[in-house]
Amino acid sequence: MTDTRYLALGDVVGDELFPDVDLALRRGRHIDREDNLWYTFLVDAQALLEAFYRRYGCELIHPADGYFYLLPTGDKLGRRHLSVPEMLVGQALTLLYLDPATLQSGGVIKRADALSHLAAVMGSDALTRAFNPKRKRVDERVAQETVRGKFAEALRRLGALGFVDLLDSDALRLRPGLLRFAEPVRGRGSPAEALERLVARGELVLGDGELDVDEDGEFPEESPEDDEASSKTPEPFEFPSEVLSEFEDFGEQVSPARHPQSELEELGEPPSPLRPPPSEFEDFAGEFSPPPEPPEDET
Amino acid sequence: MTEPAKDPQLVLAALARSHPVIELGTLDLCFLAALHLQAEGAVISAFSEEKLSELFEQACALVEPYAENLKRRATHTIQRLRDQKLLARVDGAGVLRAGEFALTRLAASIIESYLADESLTRENLTQLTRSLRVSLAEILTRANEAKELADWRNAVEAPLRVSVSDLVSGIERRQRSLDLEQQEFQTRIAKLLESDWFGAVDQCLELLESTSRTLTELNEILLRDAHELSSLLQDIQEITVDAQAEGAEAAVERVMEQVDRIRAWGAARQRAWSEYYQYVHRYLCDVVRLDPSRALIQRLREQLSQHTSRPFALSVAAAASPRLLREIEPFKDDKPKVSRPRAERERPPADNDAVDQHAIVEELVQGALSRGSLGLCEVTQLVNAETPNELQFVTAGRVAQVVGRLARTTIDRDRPWVSVNEGLVIEEWKLVKGGAHD
């Protein structure tokens, strides 16, 4: 273990920074050196927290680029996959992060520059199609407005995840966590192999991620063909979109893939996530006491 | 005597009235620069018309080598610069002889801003702050000795307004130059990486370190010296307040504000530089060193352009927020309820004495007929005499109906219309005597 101010997990949990950092990590936040105190805390407590989060079925990842994030690999902590707009905007921002021209402004760029960069790399038509996937015939003006709206919404979500800082209505600061978007192309091997490796590690999934939600919280309109199909096989019950939009912030809860058997064997029988062993609370004599054991199952 | 504060509105209005315009092209600026350099090099204060034309041609040869009619253009340019108050005739001889011209203060300032190398350095900042300290110490001594109003004006206020203020302005001017240098420096680092990528890392690091050193030194000097200057100024201010020398007090306050601004500049630049320094350092370590062949940008660009055909999505943790259950509060119904009245819409039947109007009319008609009435009009008059006015019209109809039933009428070709009373006219029927029905 490296030099650290924490000798036991109890010291880490007792630190006043722990609740905020823990909540941020569990909500998908990427914490880098610009989060000065949080980052230092994580560096100091890394070894203890890695073991701590592993018991929740998560990995505390710390790439060489200098940021932390929590990667759920089990089914004990919720996770979601970024939507198509988030992925596209994230990759465009990563390109700008890597561009030496951005150095001149210390990583601060205009939102409009990010959107124009995205359109330049993808092409305006491809971008419009990607942001309006289910609309076959749509007015150009409406489609472009949708692109702008989804772009803004994607930026907001990426900001909440710590990939960018939204400084004001026009400017944003790029952060090192963006380099996650470049992971599939960073190695020397082919991108396909890198993708396979990342999928196996649970870093990403193939295909479009989370169900796309409009900036106004509504799901995209169904095409006429879809309407016909749905009329032939009626759904037993469906919430109206107004109701569903209220649950937008919850994201899509994905039931994760089970551990391979070999991994489970390596991990052994993990204790219940809500019931850590009493030894973890040794340093908190008098302050904490382990919760009582549950009653034996009489059946 | 305190100099009255200038009202910005009045100053702007006066400026607008004079319609000032400055339009200078590259040739004009080069011509002015040539004059400025010539004046400095040869230590001359004015130029003859011939010299002006000669310098203009030299400038023109550099900027527009193929220009024609140089003499004519020189005349026009000189006139335009005089109109814009950049060049002034200084000999005052009028038409007696050819004039002599000199650059105005405005022209000198413009050219100096282009040519002067006035960036803030450790040497010039130390020299300036030292001069400031000496000046302020002298002013403090004179302020202690000042008795008369004239003493305050000459020994304290004037030096503060002129020499001290100029020295502080000199520091501010150099700070602005350093800001420009910083911008150019940032552009230079970006261009170095753009052109040489991995090969530029060492050069960039060297630039970063040297600039950091410079800024740290400047900031240290500013922090240390600004503190000393402030304490000297506070001493002078206390004396001016005690002596009620308002003009000197205002001058001290102005210089104090300038010193505060200088100190704030140092702190702000240090902070901004620190952020920039860290960002570039991270970039060099995380991006440039890890991708020496600069292939990552190209591969990422391809990945982005092909994302729709080969989509993938990053996984992130998304623990749901804890759900806090609210206390159940009893429903407070303060608003008036919206409801229908519960009253019975149907009214119960009331016991009234039934009056059979038909029977009354029939009885009256029978009475009239028994008295031997000869016509319908007469019968109707008799019945209506017993009937209220509002019912007389209806009653007339009923009378006709009863008469038709009880009596026999003659068959006439024409039955005349006769008046029963005012407002009621009926067809007259003649009744047959003893012709009543059974």
Describe the fold and architecture.
The complex is a heterodimer of chains A (299) and B (438). With 299 residues, chain A is mainly alpha-helical. Chain A has helices at 9-14, 18-26, 36-54, 84-98, 111-122, 124-131, 140-160, 191-201, 224-232, 241-245, 261-267; strands at 31-32, 58-61, 67-72, 79-81, 108-110, 164-166, 171-174, 204-206. Chain A is 41% helix and 9% strand. Chain A starts with 8 loop residues before the first helix and ends in a 32-residue tail after the last helix. With 438 residues, chain B is mostly helical. Chain B folds into 3 domains: 13-115, Winged helix-like DNA-binding domain superfamily/Winged helix DNA-binding domain (Arc Repressor Mutant, subunit A, Orthogonal Bundle); 122-294, Chromosome partition protein MukF, middle domain (Methane Monooxygenase Hydroxylase, Chain G, domain 1); 358-427. Helices cover 62% and strands 5% of the residues of chain B. Chain B is built from 13 helices and 6 strands. In chain B, 24% of the residues are buried. The chains are: A mainly alpha (299), B mainly alpha (438). At the A-B interface, strand 3, strand 4, helix 4, helix 5 and helix 6 of A face helix 7, helix 9, helix 10 and strand 4 of B. Strand 8 (204-206) of chain A pairs antiparallel with strand 4 (312-317) of chain B, so a sheet runs across the interface.
Instruction: Report the mean per-residue pLDDT of chain B as an integer.
Output: 84
Strand line-up across the major sheet of chain B: 1-3-2
- The CATH topology annotation of the largest domain in chain A reads as Arc Repressor Mutant, subunit A
H/E series of chain A, N to C?
HHEHEEEHEHHHEEHEHHH
Oligomer, anyone?
heterodimer
CATH architecture heading of the largest domain in chain A:
Orthogonal Bundle
**Contiguous helical run count of chain B:** 13
Structural class of chain A: mainly alpha
Shape of chain B: elongated
- The helix fraction of chain A, in percent, is 40-55%
